[in-house]
Amino acid sequence: KPNFPDLQKIGVILFFLISGFLITYTTLRKANNEWYTFKEYYIERFSRIYIVYVPVLILIVFLDFYLFIYLAEPNVHNSYNALTFIYNLLMLQDAHSIIGGYTSFGTARILWTLAMFWWIYMLFGWLILGSRTVNKYFLYILILILFLFITILIGMGIR
After folding, report:
1. Position 77 pLDDT exceeds 80
2. Do the domain assignments include residue 81?
3. Number of domains in the chain
4. Where is the Acyltransferase domain (predicted)?
5. How far apart are CA 39 and CA 73, in angstroms?
């Protein structure tokens, strides 16, 4: 077998790079306007991601229920619970065990990528726009550290 990375890993990396370039370009372009703050950035990211993410999570609830109940698939049961669903809804899936260590919900193992993307987006947006959003430098640094901490925990939890 040749020593070649899995194609899905290459796909995730390419998506991450393209997404990063596009987010950076649009954010820096919009940052020229004083009205563009972290609040607007957050609303844009939230509406683009969560409008698809929440229905997908709900679909997984029903599909995995079918797998677990009717097909007796044992691997679904461990991550098919309300707390794991909430962690996924908050984009905290696969975070380090310090904050629970809950995995991706049900059979949707690939959702770990969304958590990583989400927190990197939040960290980047806050770095660029956070100082416009809050008047206190201390609060800016505190929220920056929080976003960085969560991003690191997600990264440490990925297996």
Report:
1. no
2. yes
3. 1
4. 9-154
5. 42
Amino acid at residue number 94? D
State the residue range of the domain holding 135. Answer: 36-157
Find all residues with CB under 8 Å of 147, minimum gap 6, and list them. Answer: 119, 122, 123, 126
Element (H, E) at 2: none
The structure's pTM equals 0.81
Other residues' Cβ atoms within 10 Å of the Cβ of residue 141: 13
Mean pLDDT of 91-114: 78
Listing DSSP states for 99-126 in one string gives GT---SSTT-GGGHHHHHHHHHHHHHHH
* 19 occurs within a structural domain: no
Q: Indicate the angle between helix axes 38-70 and 82-89, nearest 10 degrees.
A: 150
The C-alpha angle with vertex 124 and arms to 118 and 126, in degrees rounded to 5, equals 100
Within a domain: residue 11? no
Tokens of 21: 């370039």
Amino acid present at 24: T
